[in-house]
User: Which sequence fits this backbone?
C-alpha cells in the first residue's frame, strides 16, 4: 500500500495532483437496459426449479436463456459468492473486473454482469434488489461488490499459516467438480472472481484497504437476475456468514441461501433479443493473409 507519510514531491506536485478525473468507461455509452420491459416480464413468473446452498458449501444450478433467477436469504444474514458460465462453454465466464470498470465497485438494479474476452456481452441483468435502499453508508461501504476475489485456501495459508477447506474458492471447486463429473484439478481453473452477493464492503479512507462489515441482508431479502443467455451458476454460502467478523471460519454463524429459477409467462419477452458476443475482429492488428 502507499506510504502513510510519502516522501517530498516535486515542485509542481500540487499541479500534477490537480488533474481532473476522467471516467474510463462512461455508462451512457453502454447499450441501454429496458428495465420496464424486464419488470413487466418479472411480474408473471412461474418457479421451475430451486437449489438450496448449505452453509459453508456451494452448489451449481442451470438457468435457461431469458429466464429469471433469484438469490434469497432464508434463515439468517448470509453472503454468497457467485460464479457464472455460459451454458456448455465454461470458457465464457463472468468477468468481475470489466463489470466493475463498467458499472462501479458495487452492483444494483439495472447493472449487468459481463462475460470474459473475447465474448464481452451481458450474461445477466439485475432486475430487482431488496437492498437498494442501503446505498452508501458513512464508512463508504455498499452491498453486492465486484471488488473481492473470493476467500481462498492459498491466502489463508499465506496469512494464517493453516489449511482451510470450506472457503468459497474450495466450495466452488467441489460444486463444479460434482456438477461436471470432473476432478478437483480440472475444476479449479474454471473457478473465477465472483460477485459478492449481499456482502457489505468498501475501502478504508486512510490506507484504502478492502474491508468488510456485517451485511444488512435479512431473511426474505433477495437479488434477482434476468439471464441474457443460457447460464450455469455456482453459488457459495460464505463461511464468514454475514462477514461482520471474519470470512474463513468454522464458528461464525452461517446460513443457507436459496436459488430459485423462474420462467416468465409474459408476452413482454416475445421478441426480446440479447446482445451478441463482441463484434471485434480479433485480428489484433495482424494483417490478413494474402
Assistant:
Amino acid at each position: 500500500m502507499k506510504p502513510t507519510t510519502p516522501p517530498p514531491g516535486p515542485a509542481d506536485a500540487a499541479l500534477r495532483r490537480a488533474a481532473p478525473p476522467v471516467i474510463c468507461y462512461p455508462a451512457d455509452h453502454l447499450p441501454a437496459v429496458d428495465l420496464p420491459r424486464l419488470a413487466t416480464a418479472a411480474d408473471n413468473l412461474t418457479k421451475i426449479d430451486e437449489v438450496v446452498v448449505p452453509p459453508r458449501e456451494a452448489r451449481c444450478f442451470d438457468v435457461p436463456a431469458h429466464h429469471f433467477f433469484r438469490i434469497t436469504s432464508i434463515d439468517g444474514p448470509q453472503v454468497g459468492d457467485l460464479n457464472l458460465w455460459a451454458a456448455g462453454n465454461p470458457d465464457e465466464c463472468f468477468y468481475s473486473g470489466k463489470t466493475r470498470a463498467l458499472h462501479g465497485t458495487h452492483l444494483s438494479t439495472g447493472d449487468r454482469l459481463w462475460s470474459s474476452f473475447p465474448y464481452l456481452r451481458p450474461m445477466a441483468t439485475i432486475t430487482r434488489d431488496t437492498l437498494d435502499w442501503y446505498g452508501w453508508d458513512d464508512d463508504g461501504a455498499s452491498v453486492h461488490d465486484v471488488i473481492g476475489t473470493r476467500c481462498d485456501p492459498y491466502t489463508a495459508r499465506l496469512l494464517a499459516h493453516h489449511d482451510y477447506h470450506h472457503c468459497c474458492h474450495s466450495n466452488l471447486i467441489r460444486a463444479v467438480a460434482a456438477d461436471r463429473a470432473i476432478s478437483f484439478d480440472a475444476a479449479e481453473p474454471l473457478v473465477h472472481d465472483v460477485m459478492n452477493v449481499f456482502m457489505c464492503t468498501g475501502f478504508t479512507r486512510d490506507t484504502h484497504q478492502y474491508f468488510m462489515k456485517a451485511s444488512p441482508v435479512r431473511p426474505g431479502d433477495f437479488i434477482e437476475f434476468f439471464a441474457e443467455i443460457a447460464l450455469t451458476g455456482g453459488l457459495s454460502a460464505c463461511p464468514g456468514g454475514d462477514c461482520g467478523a471474519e470470512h474463513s471460519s468454522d464458528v461464525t454463524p452461517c446460513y443457507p441461501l436459496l436459488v430459485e429459477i423462474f420462467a416468465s409467462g409474459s408476452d413482454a419477452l416475445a421478441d426480446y433479443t440479447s446482445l451478441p458476443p463482441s463484434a471485434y475482429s480479433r485480428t489484433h492488428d495482424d494483417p490478413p493473409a494474402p
User: Anything to note?
Assistant: The mean pLDDT is 96. The longest strand covers residues 45-53.
